[in-house]
Fold:
Amino acid sequence: MVEEFDRNVICQYAAHPKCPNCYHTRVRKTRKRNDYGFVASVRNLTRGAHEALNLSEEVVESLRLSLQRATTAEIYATNVLNLYVHYDLRPESILQRLDQPDTGSISVCDMENLLRLLYNVFSPSPDQMVFKFEWVYREHSWFGSCGPYNGVTQIRMNSLSCRQPAAYGNLSSGAMGRLGTLLHELVHAFIHKYACNRCSAHYGNVKTAAGHGHVWQRIANWVEHAAQEALKSLVSLARFEAIQFHWENMKPFPNPAEARLWELRDD
Structure:
């Protein structure tokens, strides 16, 4: 079932045929002191200009760092989300309201603010992504999507249906499911914004499994790790489910070493 492949051909890790769009683009890092007094590395990414697997390595490297080494924006977003997750138990709190049977009453403005906080926690770039959010009313198991809309990133989410993972701490099953869906779509949004889509390796690394292949799996795995570390919350991005659902489009298959990086589990 696992198909071995030549990474130099399929993944083109750092030596793909010289793509005029991204071959010479390197991730520039700026060192700045954060509010802890530690030096944080800010990754200055360029829209549509980075080979996708190299981009995923930058994200993983950034998310491996402790919160002390995070940027001031990451620390602020983490602190606010920790307040929401662990202390703000009011019924009108944004995360408590995500458990409603119909979440369409939550304002678009509130959802876009939540998306920006989540993005700042998990993105290694200081660039602000502009989000447009939309509730969709569907009574079946479609949970969310991400795509371009008039030059900005649009994230749509089902107000009537969501995944139902285990409740965790002060967050109900529905809130955990919708929080996971938002992060799931943010990983797509990040890849869409910064990965070069002109490379010969783009399809095999990004597009396979309807966008849930090698690059998405690597980043999503470490977003889950970072959520557990930063928010003390076991958020699932439904990575195993994504492969199950899109199995017929899962080519090239990961080799065993790649699959181990994904740390897949059935949530």
